[in-house]
Amino acid sequence: MEQIRVIVIDDSAFMRKIITDILSSDERIDVISTARNGTDGIKKIKQFSPDVVTMDVQMPIMDGIQTLEVLMEKKPIPVIMLSGETEDNRSRVLEAMAKGAVDFITKPSGPISLNMDSIKNEIISKVVAAASIRKIDIKKIEIEKKVSTIEKPPNKYFDKKTVVAIGSSTGGPRALAQVISSIPGNYSFPIFIVQHMPAGFTKSLAKRLNMNNDIYVKEAEDGEQVRSKTVYIAPGNQHMRIRKRGEILTIQLSEDSPRNGHRPSVDILFESLAEIEDIAKIAVILTGMGSDGTKGILKLKEVNENTVVIAESEETAIIYGMPKAVVNSKKANFILPINEIGKKLLDLQKGME
User: Fold this and answer.
1) 288 DSSP β-pair partners
2) Which residues are the active-site residues?
3) Are strands 103-106 and 79-83 parallel, antiparallel or unpaired?
4) Mean pLDDT throughout 181-206?
5) Which secondary structure element, helix H or strand E, spans residue 230, and what is its range?
6) What is the reported pLDDT for 110?
7) How confident is the model at residue 87 (pLDDT cuts 50, 70, 90)?
8) By CB neighbour count within 10 A (0-12 exposed, 13-18 middle, 19+ buried), where does 109 fall?
9) Which of 7, 93, 164, 304 has the most neighbouring CB atoms within 10 Å?
10) Alpha helices, DSSP H only, in the chain?
C-alpha cells in the first residue's frame, strides 16, 4: 500500500512539528513537506502534489480560508482544517467546510504540548479517510439527475404527523447546506438533524444554515416542544431523542455514553422515533465514515415497514461509509445524489413518488 502523502500548513513552527510527528507515527502516512502560511503552502502543493493537506485557519499573509479558495479553484485536494475553540474560529471552520474543506480538527485548549496527544487518533483517522476521497467529489460539478429506487415507498399522502430525521458526519455541513437550501420556509414536517460535531460547532452550524436558508434552523434545546416548519440540530456532545407527551412531541437531550464512538448518535435519534407509533417517519443518511444510523433504520423498518429511507448516492458522498451501510442493509427506498434529496423531501410531503 502506498503511503498517504501529506503537507502540513501552519504558521507556528511548534505546531508544524507536533502535527508532523503525530502523522509520521503512523506507517500509512508520509509528511512530505510543511509550510508556514497559505502562500508558501500553495507553492509546496504545486511542487509536491500531496494526497491530503492539513491547514490552520488563522495564519498571516494568506489565511486558511483564502488558501482553501485558491486550492478549490485551481487544484482541488482533500483539506482538513485545524482550529482553536473560539466562536470566531468555529464560524471560520464552517465557512471552510462550505467552501470545500472535507473535515476539521479542534485544537485542544490549555498547554498544547501536553494536550496534542489527545487528538492523535482523530487527526490520523481523518487524514486516512480524506485520502480515500475521489478528486471528482471535491470539485464543484453538476451531477446528472439519477434516481435509484430500491423499494417502492407507501402510496399515500403523509399527514401532519410526519417527521424527517437526517444523519451525517464527514462532509455533512456542506451536504446539509445543499439539502436545507431546497426546503422552503413553509415546509410543514419538522426536521431533526444529527451531525457528528464537537460542542459549540453545532450552534454555529445552526446559525449559518438559518441565515442562508428560508426554513427556520436552530440548535435543539432540552425539553422544548417540537414545531412544524423548523429544523432542529442536535447539540455537539449530546444525544437527541424525540419523546411523545400526549399529542405533543418534545426533545430530550442527554450526555449518555457515546454510541459507536459518537455523541450525538444518529442511531439513538432514529431508535427514539421508532418508539413513537402514530407518526410517519422519513429517515435520511448523508455522507460520513462508519455506519451510524443503520441500526436505527433497521429498528424503524422493523416497527413500521412504511418508513421511507433515503441514502445519499456514492456519486456525491464525500465519504461513502454511512450511506453505503444503509444501502447494503437493503432498507433504502431511494438512493439519490445530494442535489436531489431536498426535492425528494418536498415530493414526499406532496404525496408524490
Assistant:
1) 320
2) 169, 196, 292
3) parallel
4) 94
5) strand 230-233
6) 55
7) confident
8) exposed
9) 93
10) 13-24, 38-48, 64-74, 87-98, 112-115, 120-131, 135-138, 172-180, 201-212, 266-274, 294-303, 322-328, 338-349
Instruction: Give, for 309, the enclosing helix (H) or strand (E).
Output: strand 308-312
Mean pLDDT of 94-115: 78
The rounded distance, in Å, linking the Cα atoms of 1 and 180 is 39
What's the confidence (pLDDT) of residue 75? 83
Q: How far is the C-alpha of 20 from the C-alpha of 53, rounded, in Å?
A: 12
CA 240 vs CA 160, 166, 227, 252, 254: distances in Å? 22, 12, 16, 6, 7
Which amino acid is located at 349 in the chain?
Q
**What confidence score (pLDDT) does residue 141 get?**
37
Which cell goes with 275?
Answer: 418508539
Contact 234, 264 (CB under 8 A): yes
pLDDT: is 57 or 134 the higher one? Answer: 57
Residue 8 to residue 177: CA distance in whole angstroms: 28
Helix ranges restricted to H, 75-150? 87-98, 112-115, 120-131, 135-138
CA–CA gap between residue 178 and residue 180 (Å, rounded): 6
In the structure grid, which three cell numbers stand for residue 194, read together?
A: 444529527
Q: How many CA atoms lie within 13 A of 140 on its CB side?
A: 11
- CA-closest candidate to residue 288, choices 307, 311, 308: 311
* Burial degree of 142 (CB within 10 A; 0-12, 13-18, 19+): exposed
Say how far apart CA 248 and CA 250 lie, in whole Å.
Answer: 6
| Residues forming a β-bridge with 156 | none
